[in-house]
Amino acid sequence: MHIRDIFDRDAVTFSFEFFPPRTDEGSEELFRRIAEFEALEPSFVSVTYGAGGSTRQLTHDLVVRLRTQTRLDPIPHLTCVSHTAAELETILRRYADASVSNVLALRGDPPATAVAYDRSRDELKFAADLVRLIRKMNERSGQPESRGFGIGVAGFPEGHPDTRNRLLEMDHLKAKVDAGADYICTQMFFDNAEFYDWRDRCDLAGIKVPLLAGIMPIASMAGLRRMAELAGGTRFPAKLLRRIDRCRNDPEAIRQNGILWATEQCRDLLDHGVRGIHFYTLNRSDATRQIYQTLGARDSSALR
User: Fold this and answer.
1) Model confidence pLDDT, tens digit, residues 48-76
2) What pLDDT digit, counting tens, does each position of 109-161 carry?
3) Of the residues 17, 158, 169, 194, which is catalytic?
4) Which alpha helices (H) appear in 146-234, and where do they start and end?
5) What is the CATH number of the domain that holds 108?
6) Which of 9, 10, 71 is nearest to 277 (CA)?
7) What gap in Å lies between CA 225 and CA 244, rounded to an integer?
8) Is 41 a catalytic residue?
9) Could you tell me the residue range of the domain that residue 23 belongs to?
10) H or E element, residue 301
11) Are strands 150-155 and 183-188 parallel, antiparallel or unpaired?
12) Were 184 and a residue from 23, 52, 155, 198 both cysteine, which residue would form a disulfide, CB within 3.0 to 4.6 Å?
């Protein structure tokens, strides 16, 4: 289903992010959990794309399997780093042939093995360039009854790690929307005040597309440190850190406090009219399911 139709159907969207396992065993383990995700009836799910296209085939295979073997509506991530425009068009045509309706367009990161990677040599240097490429493909489809791909892009309430100038950062975000993005999904955050301020700044910049809040429950102390390293700039409120520190020697208590914090975030976001909540699941359904239950619902349809 095209993302615009999803937004027309659901007053508030609830969605999940998966990553493609790198082994057959991991893929089968994920699909054993898929029924639990399906039972939550998300608006859609997204599938990540490895740095520099390192999971290109794995992402495609998982998206197609979700599309053909489940009731979930998959949205693949796609990055322009290390790809030519022709390669990206080939990937998009394969998704179109598999009846995939939407894409999350990202600049992406170079492969970890690439030393001193030169982004200036990329044919498409920014996510806005990828959005424009997808829009041009949509226009060339020649099928009036089809709107082509719906397009999502990323937002950073706490600031993009590569752009210290917050005014310039908002200009970049507006450029992605002006290029044709249908919605924005944020990086994870742990302080709702950051999201509300960013949402107000988007409004001031003339950005009117739906804004989805990215939420990730903390599952462990190691996971918290990994988030701080990978997200590059994510801020952890002192109140949250005190909660985690009090139970630092009790892994289950850390997990439960992480779920509680995420639940409180979601409840507050719903009270403040959020357009959608996107859960970074790490391919595990237990935390998301517990959040739904605490919010008073067995599936997302009861929360919309």
Assistant:
1) 998 777 888 999 999 999 999 999 999 99
2) 877 666 677 777 789 999 999 999 999 999 987 554 567 999 999 999 998 87
3) 17
4) 166-179, 192-204, 221-231
5) 3.20.20.220
6) 10
7) 12
8) no
9) 3-295
10) none
11) parallel
12) 155
